TrEMBL record:
Keywords noted in UniProt: Carboxypeptidase, Hydrolase, Protease
Enzyme nomenclature, EC number: 3.4.16.-
PANTHER family: CARBOXYPEPTIDASE, SERINE PROTEASE FAMILY S10 SERINE CARBOXYPEPTIDASE
Family according to the record: Belongs to the peptidase S10 family.
Protein name: Carboxypeptidase
A GO MF term: serine-type carboxypeptidase activity
Biological-process GO terms, alphabetical: proteolysis
Cited Pfam families: Peptidase_S10
Domain of life: Eukaryota
This protein's GO CC annotations: vacuole
Originating organism: Triticum turgidum subsp. durum (Durum wheat)
Amino acid sequence: MQELGPFRVTEDNKTLGRNMHAWNNAANVIFLESPAGVGFSYSNTSSDYDLSGDERTADDAYVFLVRWLERFAEYKARAFYISGESYAGHYAPQLAATILLHNTYNNRTIVNLQGILVGNPYLDDKRNNQGTIDFFWTHGVMSDEVYANLTEHCDSAGEACSGAWDAFDAGQIDAYNIYAPVCVDAPDGAYHPSGYLPGYDPCSDYPTIAHLNDPAVQEAFHARMTEWSPCKWQGMSNSTPED
């Protein structure tokens, strides 16, 4: 509802408007909440959350995809692409590898995988940290002193790296687009963009979160009534296995 989907939430939090840049204008798009517990998805078995991980996520997504193709068989021969952002730097290639493995087995539903797309992908702490540090420094957002401190202490994740980041103040900028306006919060609870950029609303979080937490909307989605949030950090770890 904030990027490539067919609808955007309007400022009244109650109505939807068409997204003229939606990907489904050019392709059939499935939006999958994965792993279980993301968004409105859930498991009736609480232990599933304790067992979640990259491998389990790929296996579960593969099962969903195969069952979907069996239910809608007219799409079996269509070219299929996996796309995602952020931690999809793990999810997308791992699901692709799972698909390619199962495609080699006899008597299995073949997924016509043609490629993957990842935006702003999370790879591992070292690569992502260094990429962020280099970008901010070369674009004049970070001082030489902070750059040197981060480069020295962020060879791997840990308290020293976190402490080095604490000394960095990026100010009022959007880390994902340093030239874009940001959303400014007022003391009275109001909010407004700091500037105008066609097609981009830095305050879109607010109406989207309000809309998805509307009980009537959740009922229309046939979703389990819950407090929806963009990210759920419980149980997450900064560590990344080497293998």
